[in-house]
Amino acid sequence: MKKFLTFLVLFAAFTHLAAAKSALVIVDMQKCFVPGADDLVHSLPVAGGHDIVAGINQLQKKFNLVVATKDWHPKNHGSFASQHSGKNPFEMTILAGLEQMLWPDHCTQGSVGAEFVAALDTEKIAHITRKGTHSDVDSYSGFMDNNKVSKTDLDSFLKSQGVDSIFVVGLAADYCVKATAIDAAHLNYKTFFVQDLTKAVDPSAANMKNIYAELKRHKVEIISSQELLNNKNNL
Ligand SMILES: [Zn+2]
Hints:
There is one protein chain. This protein has helices at 2-18, 53-60, 154-160, 173-186, 205-217, 225-230, and strands at residues 22-27, 66-71, 92-95, 98-101, 125-131, 165-171, 190-199, 221-223. The chain has one domain: Isochorismatase-like (Rossmann fold). Helix 4 links the parallel strand 6 and strand 7. By secondary structure, it is of the alpha/beta class. The protein starts with a helix and ends in a 5-residue tail after the last helix. The protein is built from 6 helices and 8 strands; from the N terminus they run αβαββββαβαβαβα. Helices cover 28% and strands 20% of the residues. A 6-stranded parallel sheet has the order 5-2-1-6-7-8, sandwiched between helices. The structure holds zinc ion. Zinc ion binds next to loops. Zinc ion (ZN) binds at residues 71, 73, 79, 106-107, 132.
């Protein structure tokens, strides 16, 4: 009996250790960030946003743990140009003491635009982190506000699952995916940016080069989904 109990304890420990050390983090795959006919829903479309959904669905099958973030703004969010008289989207302002790009209204809490894109497979998503919920500061990263004052629940959730490596995909490469990856690396996760499963607001070669350089400076590794799919084992 004692041997059996020891076996059970060891089995539980090993299965715990084997489970979910890596996580796939799907950033902001929401209707507001992909192109579509209704400008109010698809208010901040990233060109090619739809093209990465099938690849993200395929990659989810390789992971034991999948989490997602959602941009989730109050209606009066300070990143919206509509909240600043005389300002237009894509102009700069100062928010929470930081340089801030002003955006069209997007991903307001409970809106259709804040829903996941319809083609995204959501069955495996174990946890959704909502970010950008404070009206006076933006939150590109899934982990914390841009001024680094308030953390979301993403880090505590991943730590509770024993995660030490994360793989980041989604929208947009030059804002929320990049910021999520850099914060993950700062929080000591081994972090991978899956370059073919993200699209940038500014996809020019010069901008992509800058993004990759910045990621590398922060010890984020750049990888392709094919490299992950080629690996026989699940992550
Ligand atoms: Zn936003």
